[in-house]
Amino acid sequence: MSEKIDFSHVRFLVVDSNKLMCQLVKDILMMLGATQVTTARDSEKAIASLRSGGIDVVITEWNLKPRTGLELLDWLRTDGTSPDRMMPVIMLTANSEVDYVVESRDKGVTEFLAKPFTAEAMYRRLVSVIARPRDFVSVKDYFGPDRRRRQLPFEGVDRRQQKPE
Amino acid sequence: MRRTIIPNRGDLRRKAVNYKTGLDLKLDDEMLQKMEALVQNSSAQFIDQTVETLKALRETLARAAADPATRAEALEQIREEAFQIKGMGGVFGYPLLTEFAKSLHDFLKELNDLDELQQEIVSIHIDTLYVVVSHRIAGSGGPLEAQLRASLKAAIDKAKPGAKASAG
After folding, report:
1. Which positions 106-165 of B are in contact with A (Cβ < 8 Å)?
2. CATH class of B44-162
3. Fold topology of A7-148
4. What is the ipTM of this complex?
5. What residues form DSSP beta bridges with B59?
6. Hey, which end of chain A has fewer CB within 10 Å, N or C?
7. How far lies A89's CA from each of A12, A128, B97, in Å?
8. Do B1 and A139 lie within an 8 Å CB cutoff?
9. Do A138 and B15 make contact, defined as CB atoms within 8 angstroms?
10. B7-37 pLDDT, tens per residue?
11. For A96-118, what is each residue's pLDDT tens digit?
12. Interchain proximity A27–B49, CB inside 8 Å
C-alpha cells in the first residue's frame, strides 16, 4: 500500500499582491482537496492572519508591500511574536534568479518555486513540505530547515570495496 | 554558537499523510490534466487583464512624456506590472510574454528615472507585449516568435544611446 496525502485538514495562507494569481493558487489547492485556504494581498494582512492562528503552510510571493515576502519569512523564523518559527514556507515568486533562491534559503525558506510555474511543480513542493518534513537547524546566523541530505542506510553490496573484475 | 538540531514535530505529516484518503504522492495523468485545464480556464481572464494593463501602461508612459514630475511614479508602476506579467505569462501558456516582460523588468530594475530614450525602449516593449496578447501568441519557438524577438532586439538597439547619431 502506498502513502497518500490528504490536504483537507491542512490550513493554507496564500500571499500575493496579484488577485488573479492569489485566486489561481487557491483554486489549485482546492482542486487538490484543500478546504481551508486564506488569501492575503499584502504582508501586513498576512501577518495579521498568521497572528490570529490556524495556518499550517504559507505560500508567498517575494514582491510584497509593505514588507517583502523575504521579510515576512524572516519575521516568521526569527521574531518573538511569530506563531510558529518552524512553519513551512513556500516562496512562489517571479524573482526567479539564483541570487533570490540563495537569499531565500539563507533566511530559512522551506521550498522555492519560480514563476512561471506548473501546477505539478507546486504539488511536488507541497508533498515535500508536508510528507517529507525536515528537521530545523539553529545556529548563530541561521534558523531554518536542515539542508543536509538525509543519510539513509544502504543494505546492498558496497562495490567500491570490491576488486575490479 | 552551538549548532542545535530541532527535530521536526511531524504534526503536519500526521495530519495529512495516510494510506486511505487523498492523492498519491505522485500525481496521475488524469489529475494532471484536470489541473492543467483549471489553469487554462483562467487564461482568458489573464489575457483580458493583460490587455487592460498594457493600455494603462501606454497612458502612463504618455503622461510621463508630457509631465516629467510623473516619471518616478510611472517607472514604479511599469516595473511592477512587468514583474506581474513576467510571473504569469508562462503559467497561462504564454512564455513569450514572460520573456519580453522579463526583458522590460530587467531594463527597469536599476533605473531611478525615465528619460526620453528610456521611455522609447519601454514603449517598444509595451508594443511588443501588446502584439503577443492581441494575437494570442502562445508558442515560443516558432518563426513568428523568432521574428518578434528579433524585432524587439532591433528596436531596442536602434533606441540605444548613440545609435541615432551613428545612423544619421
Report:
1. none
2. mainly alpha
3. Rossmann fold (3.40.50)
4. 0.90
5. none
6. C
7. 10, 11, 28
8. yes
9. no
10. 999 999 999 999 999 999 999 999 999 999 9
11. 999 999 999 999 999 999 999 99
12. no
